[in-house]
Write a structure and sequence with these properties.
Blueprint (H helix, E strand, L loop, with lengths): L33 H18 L3 E13 L3 E15 L6 E10 L2 E2 L18 H4 L10 E5 L9 E6 L17 E6 L6 E7 L2 H7 L4 E11 L2 E15 L4 E14 L2 E6 L2 E5 L4
Antiparallel strand pairs: 1-2, 1-11, 2-3, 3-4, 5-6, 6-7, 7-8, 8-9, 9-10, 10-11, 12-13
Length: 271
């Protein structure tokens, strides 16, 4: 895990030789150039992607869908969310088991559907901007400092993205916003917006955002999603929906393997 960025105080003592030069303290992240901040976000995303263990969490969902601007479907659910690391690569396989739907218990063998469902908030979302492959596709500009967002980076797709290897072509007008926690240097908020006509054409959500916070998993701290939100337009614009999920009670995921009648041991999937 990357260490927290701190300010180093230089203390002079009588025992130090006059000609000894102390190393300069690192710049606080608030004063670093935007390219250095993006470098750190790419590095953080790589550590997250390669080291986040399989996990489970409580998930509270609000799902809404409007059809032709008239008919409305609404659902509220509680689910057990899992992000399981596959043994053959570094991706996380996301799934959920709904346990309560609109206030009523759901049996384990039942799999109800929600008006709108989204996946991808655990790892893949930040990779859209902060991976070695995708970073060259975007322009990153520091936004003016505000109390709500002391470090914000505005992101736009480069006009030449279609000619850059690894960039997804056709997503004209895609923009993003990244907000960074000043104390740790980690992403606290990330959002992405795509014009509706482009989103419909490429089957993407028109808007997606992830708010993250520090979470203890075992002996390590990871910045994990707290709120995930997505807006969708489907069926040629006839259907519009929003999905919001709130995450809490994170734990490392363990599977149970029975080796003898009445005896079991917990095992974790291979990282």
């Amino acid at each position: 895990m990357l260490s927290r960025l701190t300010l180093i105080s230089l203390l002079s003592t009588a025992t130090l030789c006059a000609q000894t030069r102390q190393p300069a303290p690192p710049k606080p992240i608030t004063s670093q150039p935007v390219e250095d901040i993006v470098d750190q976000l790419v590095a953080n995303a790589s550590v997250y992607r390669n080291n986040l263990p399989s996990l489970t969490a409580d998930e509270d969902i609000v799902s809404d869908l409007t059809i032709l601007g008239i008919y409305h479907k609404h659902a509220e659910a509680r689910a057990t969310f899992r992000a399981i690391r596959k043994s053959d690569d570094s991706s996380l396989d996301e799934s959920r088991q709904i346990t309560i739907l609109n206030g009523k218990p759901v049996k384990p063998d039942e799999h109800p559907t929600l008006p709108v469902v989204l996946y991808g908030g655990f790892g893949r979302f930040q990779d859209m901007f902060f991976s070695p492959q995708h970073r060259p596709c975007f322009n990153f500009v520091r936004a003016p400092v505000t109390i709500a967002a002391p470090i914000q980076i505005d992101i736009t797709l480069k006009p030449t993205a279609a000619t850059i290897p690894g960039c997804e072509s056709g997503l004209t007008g895609l923009t993003g916003i990244a907000r960074i926690d000043p104390a740790s240097g980690y992403l606290s908020h990330l959002e992405r917006t795509i014009p509706p006509d482009i989103a419909v054409k490429f089957n993407h959500a028109t808007f997606g955002s992830v708010d993250s916070g520090p979470t203890q998993l075992g002996d390590r701290v990871f910045w994990l999603p707290i709120i995930v939100t997505g807006d969708v337009i489907e069926n040629k614009g006839k259907e519009k929906g929003r999905f919001t999920a709130y995450y809490s009670n994170y734990h490392r995921y363990t599977a149970t393997s029975t080796i003898l009648p009445g005896t079991s041991i917990p095992t974790e999937p291979n990282p």
